[in-house]
Design goal:
about 45% helix, 3 domains, three-stranded antiparallel sheet, flat, Chitinase A, domain 3, about 375 residues, alpha+beta, four-stranded antiparallel sheet, 12 helices, about 15% strand, Triger factor/SurA peptide-binding fold
């Protein structure tokens, strides 16, 4: 009910969110699930859909949520709490009701991704070009996708991705796909971060298009993996000799996304560096359990968010066990609790004022419910 009231206000105020904002938030939330399940393919298998189909299913929901968030943020944008407010808030909490701070850790990492050999890439491209020729000569694109595509979300659907915008696709894929003009055409082979594709246009609606694609992914060979392992072992030896700092090794050797943050691994949901076991892959979790703060692991085989094999060294930067909150160690968390309470008070005040001028019809079966905010069943 509260969300609907906020959404109504968003429409009344002509509040807007951009497609980029929606897609960024959608990617952020999906990355949480990807990290929990292990990789993107696992997410697609869980839903039985391609990543693009999953995005299409959730896009309108995310847009409405972002609109309501903008309105709510506007209501409480000026709300602040002072240190004395925080202290008073904490002292008002009964001792047996003090919140527990959940355990968390912070890590940094060095990542080396094996380079896929040219022969492997050439072999995959040759196979995909052979499939393309068969389709051009009359065989069904959908059938070829079912037989050969390595995209678990779309292969069983004949490679169909569903309606997407250009922004939904990685640039290399989009630049080719959105230049297709006929449903009879089959694109040239396109290379993206996911592998190699051929694409067919199904239908166009405004700025959205529906495509089929066939994905083949080059595999990391034993030789490439051994080269990456050897390089990581050399990095490890330098660390043990204290001849170079961890951060410097990240800068010089790491090719993972975390290299842009000096190797610090960020929580994709909260935007900070506090992590729990849900937010890292099982291999990294296993390595963390052997470390104390300040220690770094031996090199180990892991996977990145796309399921590709990588070599890692991690350093455990911070480890905090579960404990009862106190002002000395947990001031920021308690300050946030106090701030949220004050925001709730301001929000309830806005709701009560808004209900006075808003027509609301509630089904009789809900009239006896206890509503969290406001007098929704006013006469």
């Amino acid at each position: 009910m509260f969300q609907k009231l906020l959404y109504l206000q968003a429409i009344y105020d002509s509040t807007e969110v951009t497609m980029k904002e929606v897609d960024t938030e959608l990617d952020r939330r999906l990355n949480v699930f990807i990290n929990q399940l292990g990789d993107e393919k696992a997410l697609e298998e869980f839903y039985g859909k391609s990543i693009l189909e999953i995005k299409n299913d959730f896009r309108d929901v995310i847009k409405e949520q972002l609109l309501t968030q903008k309105v709510q943020q506007g209501l409480t944008a000026e709300v602040k709490v002072t240190p004395s407010d925080v202290k008073a808030f904490f002292e008002d909490i009964p001792e047996d009701s003090l919140p527990m701070v959940e355990p968390y850790f912070e890590i940094s990492e060095i990542v080396i991704s094996p380079e896929i050999g040219k022969e492997e890439k050439d072999a995959v491209m040759e196979k995909l070009n052979d499939i393309r020729e068969r389709i051009i000569n009359g065989e069904s694109f959908a059938t070829m996708a079912i037989l050969y595509s390595e995209d678990p979300g779309s292969a069983t659907k004949g490679g169909e991705l569903g309606f997407v915008t250009r922004n939904d696709l990685v640039p290399e894929f989009a630049s080719v796909a959105f230049n297709l003009t006929s449903t009879e055409d089959v694109s040239i082979v396109v290379e993206t971060e996911y592998g190699f594709h051929i694409i067919q246009l199904i239908e166009k609606k405004g700025n959205m298009m529906n495509f089929r694609h066939i994905l083949l992914t080059p595999k990391i060979g034993v030789e490439e993996l051994e080269i990456a392992e050897k390089e990581m072992n050399e990095v490890y030896e330098l660390l043990k000799q204290d001849s170079i700092t961890f951060e410097k090794e990240v800068e010089e050797y790491s090719n993972g996304d975390s290299r842009f943050n000096s190797g610090k691994v960020m929580n994709p949901y909260y935007g900070n560096s506090k992590l729990s076991s849900d937010f890292v892959d099982p291999y990294t979790n296993k390595a963390i359990k052997k470390l104390q703060p300040g220690e770094y692991s031996e090199p180990f085989l892991s996977v990145n968010s796309k399921g590709a094999k990588v070599m890692k060294i991690i350093r455990l930067d911070v480890k905090v066990e579960s404990h009862i909150a106190n002002l000395k160690d947990d001031y920021q968390e308690i300050q946030q609790y106090a701030l949220e309470k004050e925001k709730q008070r301001v929000t309830e005040e806005w709701i009560n004022n808004k209900l006075e001028s808003t027509y609301i019809k509630i089904d009789d079966s809900y009239c006896n419910c206890n509503f969290k905010f406001g007098n929704w069943t006013k006469e």
